[in-house]
């Protein structure tokens, strides 16, 4: 397992949070009328991952060049933690030609072949893809791994079970990471899922299933490190479910009237909690907190500026870079 | 026999899901396994005439699953089932609050589903209320491996006073570890480990172990208590405990299961009897304190750490002993009306 670099993990979490917070501002800045998701500088729906940083940071701290991630509709935190270029990613979110997919994909369809990162708005769609990537790694004889990220609601999809089955049968180097943020859009888990923990479901497929409570980045770091080491060693797939926190709505514009615990959500924010822990350990000072935040502000502002200055695609570009 | 006897149930939804599923070969006791164990427990309780069961509330699906079964016609003979009215925090506090509420209600026994960590949470909370445990954890040194149906019988016989709690329960030992101003309790072991990581909690890196204090040490145990079990066994009913100091370079070597399927060779620097009510200072200058196999507290250089063995654990129901007494009791023999 790799060394624990607390300062690097904290910095990455702050960077992601700043990104999600600024995208939220940008998304709403010129959305008129507010309910028209097609209006404004950032078209389409927007699903932000503020609060879920520990999942991405704890996993990606162990990844190396060539490892793959498939993420769901809420992908930014894993993309940034995995090294996807922030400028190109932001331009894609703005629908500009400088984006990862030349503006054709938007925030739910970020494809970065260089970093083996992809995501999809189709629930659980990334899991079979991750199995395919893992099969390729295995056949090539590399020790790379594939990370399949999904939410707890997606674990009720057929693709989830088919993927776990295939990964187990073929002993694939894939790690299924489930972000349990309590809400599948507006549906609580107890109304949709037989069995409270998806870690239990791993047992049915003969693979280890771990649940990380408390949205704790270091607990996630340890669990992910163990699972990734296991996969690299040829011992097959694992499943890790982290009980995380959706700090914002399911989508931007979601009033979250269905959410009785809304008033206490900010109290469970993992970043101030981790900062306090690092300060207690003497590994983080107030000056460092300010400097890390300033760096994140500057990087995100620059990415947004890059996106805004990138040209919009011409209508005829719709016929380019497509299969049919 | 006591009429209107009540039994409490505490089932930890989080047990058996930590990193030891990967780094060791820890068993997976699923939520549905736990619910099934509770259903078997309820059958045993029903058979002994317990009229009411109060269960911990949780957000892990156990309470919901048990309530769902209780509503079915096939469970119509079960004791009346209710749940502790408590705020759910998704933390160990839920277990502690449930135990307190049950004791305030005067339950005749409490049945705990979990491992060593779950049982530890009841330290100081249950007074003289008999506690029976069903193993659904990882190491399970403290809870015996009794079938839940039979635990239901035994807990029911005690709660209904069919058998005398004084003859089939014993006071468990416990350890108190003090770090500066703070202290914690343990039912099986206190360990001092290197480093400053709490992270996933479970102790599985044998190389990090420096000192282990044990309430009891059984040769057939899994977990940190197996270290003492392989060196100098100590029974649950003996007044003493054990103190082991480890050193990777020591000549004395033992090979023990520190988790299910995870066997490690350890170097032993010293082994000493741990007398009751005697405070022992910890040598390590910095590190992490683990209680019952879970890394729980960091301590900085210079923090004085001490450990004391005492007899302040829960009053534990000895299931085989309770059953032995029960079958000699006229009201439990065939042909008698056991429902009062």
Biggest sheet record of chain B: 7 strands, mixed
Envelope shape of chain B: globular
Average per-residue pLDDT of chain B, rounded, comes to: 93
Into which percentage range does the β-strand content of chain A fall?
Answer: 5-15%
CATH superfamily of the largest domain in chain B: Probable inorganic polyphosphate/atp-NAD kinase, domain 1
**What's the number of helices of chain B?**
9
Q: What is the number of domains of chain A? A: 1
**Poorly predicted runs of 5 or more residues of chain A:** none
Structural class of chain A: alpha/beta
Query: How much of the polypeptide of chain B forms β-strand, as a percent range?
Result: 25-35%
Rg of chain A (CA only): 19 Å
Characterise this structure:
- The complex is a heterodimer of chains A (324) and B (340).
- Chain A has 324 residues and is an alpha/beta fold.
- Chain A has helices spanning 6-29, 53-60, 76-81, 86-93, 126-140, 158-169, 199-204, 217-232, 270-281, 286-309; strands at 68-71, 111-112, 117-119, 146-151, 174-180, 183-184, 187-188, 209-212, 238-243.
- Chain A has a 7-stranded mixed sheet, with helices on both faces.
- In chain A, helix 1 (6-29) packs antiparallel against helix 9 (270-281) and helix 1 packs across helix 10 (286-309).
- Chain B folds into 2 domains: 6-172 and 313-332, Probable inorganic polyphosphate/atp-NAD kinase, domain 1 (Rossmann fold, 3-Layer(aba) Sandwich); 174-310, Tumour Suppressor Smad4 (Sandwich), CATH 2.60.200.
- Chain B has helices at residues 20-23, 31-47, 62-70, 93-104, 116-120, 148-159, 165-168, 225-231, 319-326, and strands spanning 6-11, 52-55, 80-83, 109-114, 130-135, 169-171, 174-179, 182-186, 189-193, 209-214, 241-246, 252-259, 262-274, 279-281, 287-291, 294-299, 305-310, 315-317.
- In chain B, helix 2 crosses helix 6.
- The longest helix of chain B is centred in the first third of the chain and has 17 residues, at 31-47.
- The model of chain B is unreliable at 335-340 (pLDDT under 50).
């Amino acid at each position: 397992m790799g060394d624990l670099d607390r300062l690097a993990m904290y910095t990455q979490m702050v960077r992601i949070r700043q990104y999600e917070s600024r995208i939220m501002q940008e998304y709403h800045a010129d959305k008129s009328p507010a309910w028209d998701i097609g209006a404004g500088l950032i078209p389409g729906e927007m699903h932000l991952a503020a609060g879920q940083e520990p999942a991405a940071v704890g996993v990606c701290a162990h990844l190396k060049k060539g490892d793959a991630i498939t993420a769901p509709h809420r992908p930014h935190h894993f993309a940034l933690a995995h090294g996807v270029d922030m400028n190109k990613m932001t331009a894609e979110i703005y629908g500009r030609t400088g984006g990862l997919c030349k503006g054709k994909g938007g925030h739910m369809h970020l494809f970065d072949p260089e970093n083996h990162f992809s995501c999809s708005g189709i629930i659980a769609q990334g899991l079979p893809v991750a199995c395919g990537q893992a099969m390729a790694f295995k056949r090539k004889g590399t020790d790379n791994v594939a990370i399949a990220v999904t939410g707890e609601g997606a674990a009720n999809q057929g693709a989830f079970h088919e993927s776990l089955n295939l990964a187990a049968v073929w002993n694939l180097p894939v790690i299924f990471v489930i972000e349990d943020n309590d809400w599948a859009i507006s549906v609580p888990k107890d109304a949709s899922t037989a069995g409270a923990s998806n870690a239990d479901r791993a047992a049915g497929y003969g693979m280890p299933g771990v649940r990380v409570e408390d949205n704790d980045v270091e607990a996630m770091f340890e669990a992910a490190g163990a699972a990734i080491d296991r996969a690299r060693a040829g011992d097959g797939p694992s499943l890790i479910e982290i009980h995380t926190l959706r700090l914002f709505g399911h989508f931007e514009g979601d009033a979250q009237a269905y959410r009785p615990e809304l008033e206490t959500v900010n109290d469970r924010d993992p970043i101030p909690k981790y900062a306090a822990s690092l300060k207690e350990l003497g590994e983080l000072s107030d000056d460092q907190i300010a400097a890390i935040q300033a760096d994140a502000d500057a990087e995100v502002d620059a990415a947004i500026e890059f996106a805004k200055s990138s040209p919009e695609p011409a209508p005829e570009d719709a016929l380019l870079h497509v299969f049919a | 026999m006591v009429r209107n006897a009540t039994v409490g149930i505490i089932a930890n939804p989080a047990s058996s899901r930590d990193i030891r599923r990967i780094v060791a070969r820890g068993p997976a006791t699923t939520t549905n396994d736990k619910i099934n164990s509770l259903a078997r427990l309820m059958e045993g309780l029903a058979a002994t005439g317990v009229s009411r069961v109060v269960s911990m509330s949780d957000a892990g699906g156990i309470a919901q699953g048990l309530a769902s079964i209780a509503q079915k016609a096939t469970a119509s003979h079960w004791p009346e089932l209710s749940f502790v009215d408590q705020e759910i925090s998704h933390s160990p506090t839920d277990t502690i609050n449930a135990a307190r509420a049950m004791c305030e209600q005067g339950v005749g026994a409490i049945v705990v589903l979990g491992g060593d960590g779950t049982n530890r949470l009841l330290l100081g909370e249950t007074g003289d209320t008999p506690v029976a445990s069903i193993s659904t954890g990882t190491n399970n040194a403290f809870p015996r491996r009794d079938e839940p149906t039979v635990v239901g019988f035994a807990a029911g016989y005690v709660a209904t006073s069919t058998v005398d709690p004084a003859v089939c329960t014993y006071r468990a030992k416990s350890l108190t570890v003090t770090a500066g101003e703070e202290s914690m309790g343990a039912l099986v072991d206190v360990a001092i480990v290197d480093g400053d990581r709490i992270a996933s909690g479970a102790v599985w890196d044998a190389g990090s172990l420096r000192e282990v204090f044990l309430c009891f040490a059984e040769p057939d145990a899994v977990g940190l208590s197996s270290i003492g079990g392989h060196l100098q066994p100590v029974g649950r009913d003996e007044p003493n405990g054990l103190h082991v100091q480890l050193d990777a370079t020591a000549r004395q070597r033992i090979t023990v299961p520190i988790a299910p399927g995870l066997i490690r060779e350890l170097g032993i620097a010293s082994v000493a009897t741990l007398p009751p009510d005697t405070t022992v200072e910890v040598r390590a200058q910095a590190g992490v304190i683990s209680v019952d196999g879970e890394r729980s507290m960091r301590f900085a250089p210079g923090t004085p750490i001490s450990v004391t063995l005492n007899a302040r654990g829960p009053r534990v129901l000895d299931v085989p002993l309770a059953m032995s007494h029960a079958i000699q009791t006229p009201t439990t023999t065939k042909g008698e009306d056991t429902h009062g």
